[in-house]
Amino acid sequence: MWKCSSLTVAVVLLLNTALFAQPKPLLIDQVIAVVGREAILHSELVVKVGQAQQQEPGSADPTCEFLEDLLYAKLLVEQGKLDSVVVDEARVDQELDRRIGYYAQQLGGEAKLEEFYGKTITEIKAEFRIAVEEQLLVQQMQERITSDLAMTPREVKQFFDRIPEDSIPLIGAEVEYAMLLRIPKPNEDEERRVRRKMEEFREAIVKGEKEFCTVAILYSEDPGSAKECGELGMVPTGVMVPEFDAVAVSLKEGEVSQVFKTQYGWHFMQMIERRGEQYSARHVLMRPQVSSADLQQQKAFLDSLRTAMLAGKPDFGTACAMYSDDEESKGLNGMMIEPNSNSARWDISDLDQQVFFVLDKLKPGEMSEPQLLVLPDGSKAYRILKLNVRTDPHRATLREDYRLIQQAAEGKVRSEMIERWITDHIGSTYVRVSEDYAACTFVHPWMKSQEP
Question: For residue 64, which of 109, 283, 293, 414 sits 20 to 30 Å off, Cα-Cα?
Answer without folding.
Answer: 414
